[in-house]
Design a protein that fits this description.
6 strands; Arc Repressor Mutant, subunit A; two-stranded antiparallel sheet; alpha+beta
């Protein structure tokens, strides 16, 4: 128990509850171990009796916690020749390393005898000095990928992402990541960006090394998203000719269109014949 915990409560930091690499089983196992009182048994046999997951899954969870610093198991030989495993649970490995104090943020548990143990019980060891747990910083929330208004460019976007490895082998993306990122590429294409320009924006000036190609592509699709092209106004309609006003024919009084006094076609023809 740490000094931040009250009877009946266990304080669990977000660094553990939201760990990006630990499995769900390992996180649950860590929470259970942290909730135990000092001196509790946390060997594989005892845990497999408490939970239905079985020894293999429990052993795998303990190895995960040990790999990420939440557990430390040391095998020691006692004065009477017995081998015991001393297990130490760390409440916050990052804070412990930052303070460079080997006994900080720990919950000690009872040493477990190995398979070659003798009948005598191992001697009790003094409890370590507990230190307060530093709260891990909250992870930054990722910006959502841009979304297209239609599925028109989905096929082109999927092909573009699959072909990024042709530009750089480090941009090899699995199928599930291509499906996740395709809407972001389609949003670029929908804004009038040519596929070749999208490809250059995603594959140029890569960092070395590329640790997370899908995360890098997602970041660039979000951070470098261009604005939509302004809508092109329709061309103006050609000016329509204004028809000439109506006038009465000077010869027959018929209504005709003319810019001024004039004769209709028949009157002009008759006038030429009379001449």
């Amino acid at each position: 128990m740490t000094e931040f915990q009250e009877p009946g409560y266990t304080i669990v930091g977000d660094h553990l509850a939201q760990h990006h690499e630990l499995s769900l089983g390992a996180i649950g196992l860590a929470v259970y171990i942290l909730s135990l009182p000092e001196g509790s048994q946390v060997d594989i046999r005892s845990l497999s009796k408490r939970f239905p997951e079985g020894r293999e899954r429990i052993a795998s969870g303990l190895r995960e916690l040990e790999r990420h610093g939440y557990l430390k198991r040391v095998t020691k030989r006692l004065d009477d020749g017995r081998l015991v495993t001393v297990t130490t649970s760390y409440n916050n490995p990052s804070a412990t390393q930052a303070r460079q104090a080997g006994e900080a943020d720990v919950v000690p548990v009872r040493p477990q005898l190995s398979a070659r143990r003798k009948t005598a019980d191992p001697p009790e060891r003094p409890a370590p000095t507990l230190a307060p747990v530093a709260r891990a910083p909250q992870p930054k929330l990722r910006s959502p990928l841009p979304r297209p208004r239609s599925a028109q460019h989905h096929t082109t976007a999927t092909a573009l992402l699959a072909n990024l490895r042709r530009d750089d082998a480090r941009l090899l993306l699995p199928v599930r990541e291509i499906d996740r990122l395709a809407p972001g590429v389609a949003a670029w294409l929908e804004r009038g960006v040519p596929p070749e320009a999208v490809r250059r924006a995603l594959s140029a000036d890569l960092p070395d090394p590329v640790r997370n190609p899908a995360g890098l592509v997602a970041h660039r699709l979000t951070a470098l998203l261009p604005p939509p092209l302004p809508e092109t106004p329709p061309p103006p309609e050609p000016a329509r000719a204004v028809p000439a006003p109506f006038h009465n024919c000077d010869g027959c009084e018929r209504a005709i269109r003319a810019s001024g006094p004039a004769r209709c076609r028949d009157c002009r023809s008759n006038h030429r014949e009379d001449a």
